[in-house]
Design a protein that fits this description.
Elements lengths: L19 H12 L4 H18 L9 H12 L15 H4 L20 H11 L4 H23 L5 H11 L21 H28 L1 H14 L7
Helix pairs in contact: 1-2, 2-3, 5-6, 6-7
Length: 238
């Protein structure tokens, strides 16, 4: 007769794997007990064991409430005990959040982003002419910075002003002789410093290897011994 093996794939699925199969078997045993008094007594023991197996739950607010909820979940909501907390419902446990809606907004100039369009709409709604002019210039400076960061190249002020005019539908316009803030593309300083440090470490490693090889070379050792003998007047005789 062939021997039958007990694999995890043939067992019942673990409902809450962090408590293990033994706890799940104990909960199954409690569900089958005939009297409620026995179920309450054994359930309290299992609750204490669950808290011992997961000590990190003690840092959670109302961790006892969470343990009792887990007890009901492990029993598939079949356990009949006097819980100090209300029994959770399967609908509340398996409630799925509503899917997030992806934005379907068209951005005219993607290198400026959606924020620029929102800023332009805000500037268009300003009624004070002086404040509107300052807001428009701030938007143009931001557009120039975004353009340089995206294209990694310089851009003329006339191009930025033309894009601003087109994005605003002709409602925002600055003087042609105005000078926007000077913006230059700057690479990430951490990447260059990391490369320089790695290069320095490589050179040091190569130098150390060369020194080690010279010390291990027997020819170099003989030459060093001869030089020492010459400087000291020759080998001493005893």
């Amino acid at each position: 007769m062939p021997q039958e093996f007990d694999y995890n794939s043939t067992r019942n699925k673990l409902i809450l794997s962090e408590y293990g199969r033994n706890v799940q078997n104990m909960v199954k045993y409690i569900v089958a007990l005939p009297t409620k008094e026995e179920r309450n007594r054994y359930a309290q023991v299992v609750i204490d064991l669950m808290g011992f197996l997961n000590p990190h739950l003690r840092d959670v607010a109302d961790f006892k409430h969470k343990l009792w909820d887990h007890l009901h979940i492990i029993s598939d909501f079949q356990i009949d005990v006097d819980s100090p907390y209300p029994k959770p419902s399967p609908e509340a446990i398996h409630l799925k959040p509503e899917p997030l809606k992806y934005p379907h907004q068209r951005i005219k100039y993607k290198h400026y982003g959606k924020t620029i369009e929102l800023m332009i709409e805000k500037a268009k709604s300003i009624e004070d002419p002086d404040r509107k002019r300052h807001m428009t210039q701030a938007v143009a400076n931001f557009m120039k910075m975004a353009y340089v960061q995206w294209n990694k190249d310089s851009v003329t002020d006339e191009s930025i002003l033309n894009d601003l005019y087109n994005l605003s539908g002709g409602q925002l316009k600055l003087e042609e002789n105005i000078n926007l803030n000077r913006v230059e593309y700057r690479a990430n300083p951490h990447s260059s410093s990391t490369n320089n440090n790695n290069r320095g470490r490589t050179n040091n490693n190569q130098n150390n290897r060369g020194r080690t090889n010279n010390n291990n070379n027997p020819r170099n050792n003989n030459n060093n011994n001869q030089n020492r003998n010459r400087n000291s007047g020759g080998p001493k005789k005893y």
